[in-house]
Amino acid sequence: MNIFRVVRFIGGIKIIMYTILFPSDYFNRNKIDVELEQEYEAAIKAGFDVMLFDYSSWFESKKIVLNQNVDCDLVLYRGWMMKPELYCEFEKQLKGLGYYLIVDSSSYKRLHEFVNVYPIIRNDTAPMMKFPLHTRMDVKFLQDTFGRFMVKDYVKSVKGSDFPVYFDSTITQSEFDGWMEKFYQYRGDLLTGGICIKKYLDLKKYDSHTNEYRVFYYFNEPMILMKNSNQSDACCKPPVALINKYKMLDSPFFTLDFAQLEDDSWIIIESGDGQVSGITDSSQTETFYRMLKEKN
Predict the structure, then answer these.
(1) 134: phi > 0 → left, psi -120 to 50 → alpha, else beta; which?
(2) CA atoms of 8 and 66, how far apart (whole Å)
(3) What DSSP letter does each residue of 102-146 carry, written as one string?
(4) Whole-structure pTM over 0.90, yes or no?
(5) What are the distances in angstroms from CA 278 to CA 58, 60, 78, 86?
(6) Which tens digits make up the pLDDT trace of 229-245?
(7) Considering only CA atoms, which of 257, 253, 224 is closest in space to residue 242?
(8) Tens-digit pLDDT profile for residues 168-187
(9) Cα gap 182→199, rounded to integer Å
(10) Residue 177: CB atoms within 10 Å
(11) C-alpha–C-alpha distance, residues 159 and 231, integer Å
């Protein structure tokens, strides 16, 4: 189904009607996951119809069980990240139930995995190379290519652990191999795609906070800009020209994360599917859903 089939034009304004689909509490399919409760309530307040799917059923057996049926057959998902192959199954089962995701599985994969966006934005992001999973990478080659570098899979790095933020000329091959074993352990079932090696760049800091922002794009227009690192409201924002430069990426709902470097220039540090990208400034949750509704 082409989602543009459901687009209606009323007085020249594009109207797309859809329901927002959230994961339920793990133990109660009729209750929202507590970590998404603020979003759920904000969506209802904005005037959206909402549905829940039984998260325990999906997590345990990969079977979608909805808590209710709604008349609208188009849905926007808001919830946890899924590997692209799992999202494809998610889309397939929803179609079997008569519902269609605004973001199809191809669009999801394109924006969820940074390597797919990199060739387009390479002039405005850190240099990067990709490798298949479990490839033994030559650390001397990486050091010569990047100087300092960081390790990610196609979606995320390892955070909240002893894994180094970056590697430099002091790391030996055997030490690096040991850290890569830990990387695979730490990412576990969340490991996605392959390995990305990115040049590590110094970000500008204000009172120990980096200056990062997330932009949600809806149908190729910037919808909302929000702080992404608890920095002061007084910090400068990414250039409008840079925000608009990549608004035509091939997805109806996606995010780009921007960061200021020490030399005051700006780069893109992440891309993401808009359905699984978090609202990084909780004070803007109601604004986020109100803006979505204004475009609905």
Answers:
(1) left
(2) 27
(3) SS-HHHHHHHHSHHHHHHHHGGGB--EEEE-TT----HHHHHHHH
(4) yes
(5) 21, 24, 9, 19
(6) 999 999 999 999 999 99
(7) 257
(8) 999 999 999 999 999 999 99
(9) 20
(10) 12
(11) 19
